[in-house]
Amino acid sequence: EPEVTQTPSHQVTQMGQEVILRCVPISNHLYFYWYRQILGQKVEFLVSFYNNEISEKSEIFDDQFSVERPDGSNFTLKIRSTKLEDSAMYFCASTPRAFAVSNYGYTFGSGTRLTVV
Amino acid sequence: DAKTTQPPSMDCAEGRAANLPCNHSTISGNEYVYWYRQIHSQGPQYIIHGLKNNETNEMASLIITEDRKSSTLILPHATLRDTAVYYCIVITPQGGKLIFGQGTELSVKP
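Output (structure tokens, whole complex):
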């Protein structure tokens, strides 16, 4: 079964540093997403991306965050100046087309655990 | 998207059926019911979805009431590996973001 791949699995960074989280969505998928989950809390939507542009973003996704699909295969989330409260699991997800047409819904990656110290 | 209500936790004996309820009394006519699960901080995993008919796949069955105001996810023979948080989510065919609630924490016990 095709997978969404995320790297690194765990990243530790100092407060104020920039981090880039990487995702390789499933190859024929067209819609891409980032979610985050702070320890012990629920999974929260950050941003959706389609046709090389952001289609929707949450209040969490402020100017510190950006997304990019630099080369047609990778999908990245950049946090410009990390804060302690950015510590969380970050999940990438993708879907092939109009959501409910897919028999598999979203496919999520296994996540990147970001720790800001 | 419509809001869902799930019990915060449930226990189930290994080998028995696990029946996880979900209320979605404000669901719209074109909204689907999706179930996902998350095993110990892994990425959420798709289980099953439906509109109004009951559905079954290799993982589970989904029973949707005739008025569509509630549904039940059934794991027919729960194993220890089914211990996870289960999320019931309603969403329109146009898709977009998934909104996760707190879900039901299912503990399968030997």
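Chain A has no helices and eleven strands.
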